[in-house]
Amino acid sequence: MPSSLQTAWTPAHTPYLRPLPHLPAALPSDTDFLNSPDVLYTEGLHHTVVGVGKHFIVKYGPAIAEREGQNLLFLEQQPGSSSGIPKLYAMYRSQVNGHICLIMERMPGETLEKLWPSLDTAQKSQICAKTRALLTTIRQIPAGGFYGSIDGGPIAHHLLWDARRDSTIQGPFKSEQELNIGFVKKLRGIWAMNNKHSYKADFYERQLGRILRDHPPVFTHTDVQKKNIIVERVGAYDFKVSLVDWECAGWYPSYWEYAAIFAALEWNDEWPAWFDQIVGPWTAEAAIVRMLFQDLFF
């Protein structure tokens, strides 16, 4: 990692096991979670998320990386930033299949996606306000002075993913201008695979800096969807809110939390209007990122 991208965060060594006195119960074994019937999410051979009892969520599979576990440990150490964020209890490679396993705190409640149809306007307002407060807190964490993962590594978001791990495409980046160049270079590479010149990349090279500029790095979740917001009802109009799935979190331009989700909104209910209240809006930046999303993936 270049010295100019050094951060105060030193990643925890794997295997990581939280001391027993700081656990709610004995950790589940590989057999416990591999055979758990409480499957919360599965994506083929990519990864699986299961519940084990009332205390634990386990995420495992060939696509699981240490990054999410490191993000949770990082957030826990930030003053005032750990409320509403699951704790990491263990991170290690399974002896059964060699895959990374993350054993995390099971946050009480249901996903906002499940609850949304049953909520009235006042309840939605309460939940969205608390989600905004949680995000505002993490956005105030002192930045590392670059755009990338907390340890000075590349950006984890799929918009800048590169199979060759080209650092000029996926970072880390010292400036927003470098990040913009990453978008352009990725699009040029896609067209080059078909032996064609990308005139759209020429456009972005000329124009991105007009709008995507002056956005400092802030700590960003990157995937604030209803499925990742956990809501515990403590009264008819009183809720506790948690945010899960910190896999791609890191230092991103300040517009990213809004623009990355805006690019994939489905516009089939009133959620986008509520999302504006939670995160944004960063409308000009979001319009550009949506264009990039379409050009890079379709």
Could you characterize what this model shows?
The chain is 34% helix and 18% strand. The protein has 298 residues and is an alpha+beta fold. Helix 4 packs parallel to helix 9, helix 6 runs antiparallel to helix 7 and helix 8 packs across helix 10.
Short description:
The protein is 34% helix and 18% strand.
List the keywords.
298 residues, 10 helices, 11 strands, 34% helix
Quaternary form: single chain
| Total number of helices | 10
Number of strands: 11
Spatial order of the strands forming the largest sheet: 1-5-6-4-3-2
Taking all residues together, what is the mean pLDDT? 93
- Strand coverage percent: 15-25%
| Shape verdict | globular
Give Rg in angstroms: 20 Å
Low-pLDDT sequence parts: none
Structural class estimated from helices and strands: alpha+beta
